[in-house]
From TrEMBL:
SMART domains: YceI
Protein's recorded name: YceI family protein
Sequence ranges assigned to domain Lipid/polyisoprenoid-binding YceI-like in this UniProt record: 34-198
One Pfam family linked to the record: YceI
Signal peptide: 1-21
Keywords tagged on the record: Signal
Organism for this UniProt entry: Sphingobium rhizovicinum
Xref: Gene3D superfamilies: Lipid/polyisoprenoid-binding, YceI-like
Length: 200
């Protein structure tokens, strides 16, 4: 059996975009400004169960930013895009299938995008739910990311110019028009996010 399932997970990518938080007391945890995603360090890992085993891979090389307005320090705007061409499963034949017409159809829909205009800022003490929209395979659906602040890169000063987040998201690929190979490959795609943002 071919492994079309891997494509499914892409939906969570975007998902990769974390928001930020401020503590109840004391100075704001996040400085205002535009934090660019580090495309070389950020990835979204997907996992899909199948009748026999499972499929795993990564969405790499995102572009975009998280923007915190000084007038609204407890909220952020998020806009992150992942190129379908950079999806990888470690198997060239699987990658070609996922990028083809049966799944992501990268020729017609070259990117996956996550956007949120009013995202609550994530803290380090508990997961933060971030409502947003995921656009994939030409279709846009509401999703909720669960994000937590891991910390600031150790070699950075208190300016918090480098932010590190971890997150998770689950989507149903059929909602984005990618129902191929069901029920042999699960409709549910689990995504885990490791994201780095840098403020120039």
């Amino acid at each position: 059996m071919r492994r079309p399932a891997r494509a499914i997970l892409l939906a969570g990518m975007i998902l990769c975009v974390p928001a930020m938080a401020a503590p109840a007391d004391g100075p704001a945890l996040y400085a205002s400004g535009r934090y660019l995603v580090d495309g070389g360090a950020t990835k979204v890992h997907f996992h899909v169960k199948a009748l026999l085993g499972s499929y795993d891979g990564d969405f790499l090389a995102p572009e975009g930013a998280v923007t915190i307005d000084a007038a609204r320090p407890d909220r952020a705007a998020v806009d992150i895009v992942f190129p379908v061409e950079k999806l990888t499963s470690g198997d060239a034949s699987i990658d070609a299938m996922l990028k083809g017409g049966s799944f992501f159809d990268g020729e017609h829909f070259p990117t996956v995008r996550f956007a949120a205009t009013d995202a609550p800022l994530a803290g380090s003490q508990a997961d933060t739910a971030i409502p947003g929209e995921l656009t994939m395979h030409g279709q846009t659906r509401p999703v909720i990311l669960s994000i937590r602040l891991i910390g600031v890169t150790s070699d950075e000063a208190p300016g918090l110019s480098v932010l590190h987040f971890a997150g998770a998201l689950s989507v149903e690929r059929s909602q984005f028009g990618m129902g191929f190979a069901r029920p042999f490959v699960s409709d549910k795609v689990d995504l885990t996010i490791d994201a780095i943002f840098r403020r120039p």
